[in-house]
Amino acid sequence: TLRAQLLDLTEHYNKALDQPFTHLYNHLAELLPGLHTFGGVQYDVRGSIQLQGSQTDSNPRWVKNIQVKQKCRRLHFLGGFGFEVDSGRTVATYRIHYADGEALDVPVIAGRDTANWWFRPDDLTAGLDVVWTGSNPTAAGAGYKLRLVHGTWSNPRPDVPIESLDFISTLTT
Predict the structure, then answer these.
(1) How far apart are alpha carbons 32 and 85 in whole angstroms?
(2) Cβ-based neighbours of 100, under 8 Å, separated by 6 or more
(3) Residue 52 to residue 37: CA distance in whole angstroms
(4) pLDDT tens digits, 17-69
(5) Taking the model in full, what pTM does it have?
């Protein structure tokens, strides 16, 4: 079933959706917890995993051992980042751990796989799969809206189960 394919991120969330990220009213509270379909992909959204950047040190540098324990052709990710990062820059890495002991690093590229979660309504999002938009008081007060981007990774080894993955910051802004 589709639900069996969803990854349980419960033990890895480090922020609730209504918990401020950096400023008192800077959160994702408009994104209600639960099952959502974004871009034709079902997600179980109950929190967020935030990593450390060069301007934030209160978050972990990496989150390890996110259990996958299944074969897959693709992995889907829902995300965004804070602060300004040049398009084409690697902002994070997914380290894929296969059941046969092999590991593969998958870069997460700004402007291709993800984008700043704050954006101005006239911002061009060409090439990005923006699947959710919303607002919060801090972003709105500065003339911005919020967005989350759907990213897809195609597994080059779909017949080998993926045991787990690690989510690793590159410590960009």
Answers:
(1) 27
(2) 160
(3) 28
(4) 999 877 678 899 999 999 999 989 999 999 998 876 776 667 767 789 999 99
(5) 0.89
Secondary element (H or E) of residue 67: strand 62-70
Q: Is the dihedral of CA 85, 90, 93, 98 positive or negative?
A: positive
Residue 150 has pLDDT above 50, yes or no: yes
Q: Give the tokens for residue 29.
A: 């509270």
Tokens 């796989």 correspond to 113
Given its phi and psi angles, is residue 52 left (phi above 0), alpha (psi -120 to 50 degrees) or beta?
beta
In Å, what is the CA distance from 37 to each residue of 97, 102, 132, 141, 152?
Answer: 27, 31, 10, 29, 14
- Spatial strand order of the sheet with 90-98 comes to 62-70, 162-169, 90-98, 103-109
